[in-house]
Amino acid sequence: MSKIGVVGAGAWGTALAHAWSQAENSVTLLARTEKAAKVIRETGMNEAYLPGIALSASLQTTANPSALSSCDHIALVTPAQTIGEVFEKVSLHIPPTSQIILCSKGINKQSALTPWGILGKVVDQTRLAVLSGPSFASDVARELPTAITLAMENIADAEKLSAELSTPTLRLYASDDTIGVELGGALKNVIALAVGMARGLNLGASAEAALIARGFVEMQATIVGQGGEAQTVSGLSGLGDLVLTCSSPQSRNFAYGQAFVTRSLTDNQPLAEGVHTAQRALHSARQAGMEAPIMEAVVKVLDSVWTPQEAMQNLLARPLKREH
Ligand SMILES: NC(=O)C1=CN([C@@H]2O[C@H](COP(=O)(O)OP(=O)(O)OC[C@H]3O[C@@H](n4cnc5c(N)ncnc54)[C@H](O)[C@@H]3O)[C@@H](O)[C@H]2O)C=CC1
Ligand SMILES: O=C(CO)COP(=O)(O)O
User: Fold this and answer.
1) What's the whole-number mean pLDDT along residues 277-292?
2) Cα gap 11→269, rounded to integer Å
3) What is the helix (H) or strand (E) element at residue 178, kind and residue range?
4) Residue 120: burial class (beta carbons within 10 Å; 0-12, 13-18, 19+)
């Protein structure tokens, strides 16, 4: 049995906390406010983020970060743009020997750093882990079969932690490619926006498949250029998550792309990490020597430089070239 603290009581934090708690770990879920924590405690549900799912009875929910002080592992599960400030708020309460599991999928707009890049400046990197892969929060919370990747610098540490955090339905595969695993999760969100836009434009299933395959090429070149491994991009945290996120409006990034082009975004549109990451993702691709026309199209459409129709015309008008 492990003692796990989960920071962030949104969809993913609540799903992970519930799954780990069901697997007989001692789990504390840290909500942003006492009001949010109280609702979860009193109803046994997180109706705002995981409607209809009864949470594990043994899950402890609080807004007091001192509850983290006895945890062996701390999962940080807030949006990528908030990781630095969130860690600052809780760091005093995190035991110096605990492992820190980064679960956000994005790149910081200001610093161009991933969560690993941000935390790696203030914490010994051997304590850090990245958890990423195809996993809708509601699937994990309903204990449907899921397989994702956990990466640490040291593969033996990754194997040990993966074994500790796997449950009968949530399988964690170990990796030491921290760059590849983390960037896969960030970049697939940008491609999912493009595929959502294609769905919104009614371009058809063939166009969506082409965007996924060519988007994969952009991801692979970017990740390898940034020091990740090609094999990782073909795995759960790359191809696996790309396929999941690009094939269903259940993905918030896909849904955002679709709503963007159909002008149906709402005031309380759920989090779409790709929107905040797209510009930095394109920059990383360019640094890696990739033209990345799909990422470029997403950035230009989001910035209203191109209309979605112009983006599509520009992609189709690109010179023909060899596939590889
Ligand atoms: N929902 C999913 O299926 C999955 C999400 N992820 C990733 O996990 C991360 C979190 O996503 P979700 O939980 O789904 O988002 P969410 O929007 O459901 O919840 C975000 C949570 O973070 C909290 N939060 C936001 N800003 C904060 C701040 N400044 N300080 C403290 N708390 C703050 C919110 O109160 C909320 O509880 C994202 O990077 C996402 O890409 C990864 C895998 C699956
Ligand atoms: O990362 C996810 C599934 O692996 C969730 O994707 P969305 O954030 O697009 O919903």
Assistant:
1) 96
2) 14
3) helix 178-200
4) middle
Write out the H or E segment, with its range, that includes residue 226: none
- Atom index in ligand 1 nearest the CA of residue 13 equals 13
Section 226-230 average pLDDT? 97
pLDDT for 182-224, tens place per residue?
A: 999 999 999 999 999 999 999 999 999 999 999 999 999 999 9
Residue 188 known to be catalytic: yes
Task: Give the strand pairing for 3-7 and 26-30.
Answer: parallel
pLDDT in tens, 307-320: 999 999 999 989 99
Give the residue from 49, 15, 82 showing the smallest Cα distance to 268.
Answer: 49
Residue 90 Cα to chain centre, angstroms: 21
Full-model pTM? 0.97
pLDDT recorded at residue 240 = 98
User: Ligand 2: distance of its center to the CA of 174 in Å?
Assistant: 20
- Ligand 2, pocket residues at CB < 6 Å: 105, 134-136, 189, 192, 241, 244-245, 251-253, 273
Structure token pair of residue 140:
């994990």
**Nearest one of 182, 165, 264, 179 to 229, comparing CA atoms:** 179
d(CA 156, CA 4): 20
Closest ligand 2 atom to 105 CA: 1
Decide: 302 and 278 in contact? Cβ < 8 Å: yes
Binding-site residues for sn-glycerol 3-phosphate sit at: 105, 133, 135, 188, 241, 251-253
- The residue written with tokens 């430089």 in the block is 305
**What ipTM does this complex have?**
0.99
Helix, strand, or coil (residue 241): helix
Q: 91-111: per-residue pLDDT in tens?
A: 999 999 999 999 999 999 999
Rounding to the nearest 10 degrees, give the CA dihedral for residues 95, 98, 99, 105.
-30
What is the distance in A from the centroid of ligand 1 to the CA of 80? 8
* Residue pair 99/125 in contact by the 8 Å Cβ criterion: no
